[in-house]
Amino acid sequence: MGDVIVLAMHGAPPTDFPRQEIGELFILHLRLAHTRGPERTALEQRVAELDARVRAWPRTPQNDPFYAGSLDLAAHLERVAGCPVIVGFNEFCAPSLDEALDRAAALADGRVVVVTPMVTRGGEHSEVDIPAAIQRARERHPQTLIVYAWPYSIGAVAQLLADHIRLATAVPSLSTKTLE
């Protein structure tokens, strides 16, 4: 099959997921950073339960436009790149980045190339979480070459933005929805 791309996305909770549970998940994440010992194990278990529940929640363009947009970006990237694209999410959505990397490794007979639309340096997902997931996948799939196509050239990102600004302002009546 050749190369397979994994599009590493952030993820967002669906709007119809119970607010109390999403709030609890955020609070528990904060508590985990400062908890040790036996209490940590119980917190980790509850975080895992809530994480699994939110990731498995049914998604629609109405309750999770970010998820729908991620799939749309993947479809466009697949057409432009000419190879399969699998979406993986850092949080809140399925499949997880680990699951997407495993699926890509099973399909690829070339490389797995990981890319993210998180274009600026300094983000925890792009600088810590995604590389950690890639390292775990390399350990699970030592026969697969996994390449992280990041960071981006800041000049290329600036050029992309400048080109988009020129396009968006060339005809003031155009909305960004028509610039696809």
Topology:
Elements: E1 4-9, H1 19-32, H2 38-56, H3 65-81, E2 85-89, H4 97-107, E3 111-115, H5 124-140, E4 145-148, H6 154-170
Parallel strand pairs: 1-2, 1-3, 3-4
Helix pairs in contact: 1-2, 4-5
Please sum up the structure shown.
The protein is built from six helices and four strands; from the N terminus they run βαααβαβαβα. It is an alpha/beta fold and 180 residues long.
Description of the molecule:
By secondary structure, the protein is of the alpha/beta class. The protein has helices at residues 19-32, 38-56, 65-81, 97-107, 124-140, 154-170, and strands at 4-9, 85-89, 111-115, 145-148. The model has no long low-confidence stretch (mean pLDDT 94). Strand 3 (111-115), helix 5 and strand 4 (145-148) form a beta-alpha-beta unit. Helix 4 crosses helix 5. It has a four-stranded parallel β-sheet with strand order 2-1-3-4, with helices on both faces. The radius of gyration is 18 Å and the shape is globular. The chain contains six helices and four strands; from the N terminus they run E-H-H-H-E-H-E-H-E-H.
